[in-house]
């Protein structure tokens, strides 16, 4: 899988392969620089590479080369982790870093990005799941439909901003990887800060309320609108987990959705 690109781009292997459900990665050296060779295993990853190229290193890792399913990326060499920060007393600062990185990615660009995926298409699995399971999922679906029918501050979105997708690039700061190439209201991109299932505190209502105040202030979003996007996103996440099926993770996403729904009623 990696051999043709190692040859073509004159790369030297610099670590063990990393296999995920959506891509195959290999740390490499390119022109004496640390880089990451990534070969997409699904279409979302392929689209994501095009978006990384479009950002041209502004708020995201540089793309050094791109061909078909393969992309050669700048490699994060910093030791800091936003997930570790959030779990060890730095939750507020981690959220602010996520917001600032998102703001850089949302900034207008001169060149349009061809064929981004509209949010309405991204949410297509939520309504059928809501019809099947009802309850909080139905409330999330209803909110999503209202939001999608009247989107504000529409821009190109990362689509999957969370603590493991914003990495430490040392002198270049915190930069994004692994986008989904979406197009829609910018508020959507801040919802996943509340729903990263790797962070044990996401189901704590006190943590939720604190981060709501921080993220809405940092991102310049009205708290109610942000709550609606959190409910919609968490519902979509739950729908995907139910489809896997992964009941434990679905329940975690639904717990976040219920917190958001409860806050909306206050």
TrEMBL record:
<dbReference type="GO" id="GO:0019748">
    <property type="term" value="P:secondary metabolic process"/>
</dbReference>
<protein>
    <submittedName>
        <fullName>3'-kinase</fullName>
    </submittedName>
</protein>
<dbReference type="InterPro" id="IPR006748">
    <property type="entry name" value="NH2Glyco/OHUrea_AB-resist_kin"/>
</dbReference>
<keyword id="KW-0418">Kinase</keyword>
<dbReference type="GO" id="GO:0016773">
    <property type="term" value="F:phosphotransferase activity, alcohol group as acceptor"/>
</dbReference>
<dbReference type="GO" id="GO:0016301">
    <property type="term" value="F:kinase activity"/>
</dbReference>
<keyword id="KW-0808">Transferase</keyword>
<dbReference type="InterPro" id="IPR011009">
    <property type="entry name" value="Kinase-like_dom_sf"/>
</dbReference>
<dbReference type="Pfam" id="PF04655">
    <property type="entry name" value="APH_6_hur"/>
</dbReference>
């Amino acid at each position: 899988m990696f051999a043709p690109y190692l040859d073509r781009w004159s790369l030297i292997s610099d670590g063990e392969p990393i296999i995920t459900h959506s891509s195959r990665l290999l740390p490499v050296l390119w022109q004496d620089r640390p880089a990451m060779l990534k070969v997409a295993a699904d279409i979302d990853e392929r689209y994501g590479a095009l978006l990384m190229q479009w950002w041209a290193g502004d708020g995201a890792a540089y793309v050094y080369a791109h061909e078909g399913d393969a992309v050669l990326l700048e490699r994060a060499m910093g030791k800091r982790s936003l997930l570790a920060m959030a779990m060890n007393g730095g939750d507020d600062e981690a959220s602010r870093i996520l917001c600032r990185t998102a703001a850089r990615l949302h900034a207008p660009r001169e060149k349009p990005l061809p064929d981004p995926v509209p949010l309405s298409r991204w949410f297509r699995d939520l309504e059928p799941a809501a019809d099947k399971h009802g309850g909080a999922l139905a409330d999330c679906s209803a909110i999503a439909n209202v939001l999608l029918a009247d989107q504000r501050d529409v821009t190109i979105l990362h689509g999957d901003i969370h603590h493991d997708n914003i990495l430490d690039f040392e002198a270049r700061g915190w930069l994004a990887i692994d986008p989904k190439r979406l197009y829609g209201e910018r508020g959507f991109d801040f919802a996943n800060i509340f729903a990263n299932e790797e962070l044990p505190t996401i189901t704590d209502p006190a943590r939720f309320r604190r981060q709501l105040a921080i993220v809405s202030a940092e991102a310049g979003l009205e708290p109610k609108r942000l709550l609606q996007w959190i409910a919609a996103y968490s519902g979509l996440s739950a729908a995907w987990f139910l489809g896997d099926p992964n009941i434990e993770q679905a329940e975690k996403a639904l717990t976040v959705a219920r917190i958001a729904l409860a806050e909306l009623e206050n």
